[in-house]
Design goal:
With about 350 residues, the chain is mostly helical. It has helices spanning about 5-10, 10-40, 45-65, 75-80, 80-100, 105-110, 115-125, 130-150, 160-185, 190-210, 215-220, 235-260, 265-285, 295-315, 335, and strands at about 320, 325-330. A two-stranded antiparallel ribbon has the order 1-2.
């Protein structure tokens, strides 16, 4: 490795700091969401409040020079992002409904089919044929999902699991659409996050009315909101929860980008696995969730399959080596089927 590569490599402190930042932000989002959803019945208005706070923080960061986002909206960009925004609103809404109806410790199981659905979506839409080892990883994750839903023995909400499955499907399609959406904003993930948060908040406003949440919203904002001594009122819980999730939602826009750019994909997936385990433990501690051996086995199996998938993707991305030690770039399967070749010589290690 050249000295130049050593200079560009992120320091260990930066990697550790980024991973911890990502973990804290993600865990805070899930726990604060569950806390508010346990005390209110307006998940869509709660989601809209989070998005509005994130948008305000984006604007404040732009004004002080921390970030540069397009305050003047480009209508062509807005039109190009309609599929992305629509999927984002539906996906986040269903995720909130999932968390409302299931325990915090079970949330990861309810949305455990994200990986298999993503691989399937990539195959049908992008014609990206998965390897047998990738299919094995997806099978492990699927087994983990079925263990948690059908073999645990603990009663789970059918409505919550249904929301989780649909949410997983939408997330899978979203991961495909995001690639095309990045082209609309000329490859800027930051601009994409800005547009997505802003337009999603605008789109959610009429949906809140159509979903019948308006009377509950008015009661929350203008009702008596009395609470027993020593406890927070429903309005105070909602406002504090919205502030926490809105701030961390904004930070997550940065944390996810940093976690992928600064760390390797393996580190990113391992940090996601740690987050899953920590979320289960926090759910037991904060909300007194019951974690049976079946549920623990389900979470562990899903995490094992996810980590194995990332490891296989990492191996498949590496160039193969010949007997003389030279490395050759692998030709993608779709290129072989199309009769194409990379036409590139050996890459010296």
């Amino acid at each position: 490795m050249s000295p130049h590569s050593h200079q560009n490599a992120p320091s260990r402190a930066l990697v550790i700091g980024t991973v911890l930042f990502y973990l804290v932000a993600a865990l805070s989002m899930v726990m604060a969401n569950k806390w508010v959803l346990n005390n209110t019945d307006i998940p869509l208005f709660f989601l809209c409040s989070q998005l509005v706070i994130a948008v305000v923080l984006f604007m404040a960061a732009h004004m002080v020079g921390m970030l540069q986002v397009p305050i003047r909206l480009d209508m062509q960009v807005c039109k190009g992002l309609i599929p992305m925004v629509g999927l984002n609103v539906i996906g986040l809404s269903f995720s909130n409904y999932t968390l409302k109806y299931v325990d915090a410790s079970f949330y990861q199981v309810a949305r455990g089919m994200v990986l298999p659905f993503t691989v399937g979506t990539s195959f049908f839409i992008l014609h990206a044929r998965p390897s047998l080892r990738i299919l094995l990883a997806c099978s492990i994750v699927t087994i983990g999902f079925f263990i948690g839903v059908f073999l645990d023995g603990t009663q789970v909400s059918v409505v919550g699991v249904s929301f989780g499955v649909v949410s997983s499907m939408i997330t899978a399609v979203h991961s495909v659409v995001i690639k095309k959406s990045l082209e609309v904003v000329k490859g800027s993930a930051l601009h994409l996050s800005w547009y997505t948060n802003l337009l999603s908040a605008v789109l959610l406003a009429p949906i809140i009315v159509l979903a019948g949440e308006l009377p509950s919203v008015l009661e929350l904002l203008f009702g008596p909101n009395q609470a027993p001594p020593g406890e927070m009122s429903t309005l105070s819980t909602f406002m504090l929860g919205s502030a926490i999730t809105g701030i961390f939602g904004f930070l997550m826009s940065i944390a996810s980008l940093l976690s992928i750019k600064v760390t390797s994909p393996i580190t990113h997936m391992v940090s996601s696995a740690v987050r899953g385990v920590a979320a289960s433990l926090l759910g037991k501690w904060l909300f007194h969730d019951v974690i049976t051996s079946g549920r623990a086995s389900s979470i562990g199996t899903i995490l094992l399959g996810s980590i194995y998938y990332t490891w296989i993707k990492h191996l498949e991305s590496l160039p193969t080596k010949t007997a003389n030690g030279h490395a050759y770039e692998q030709v993608r399967l779709e290129d072989v089927e199309a009769g194409k070749s990379t036409n590139k010589g050996p890459i010296l290690p």
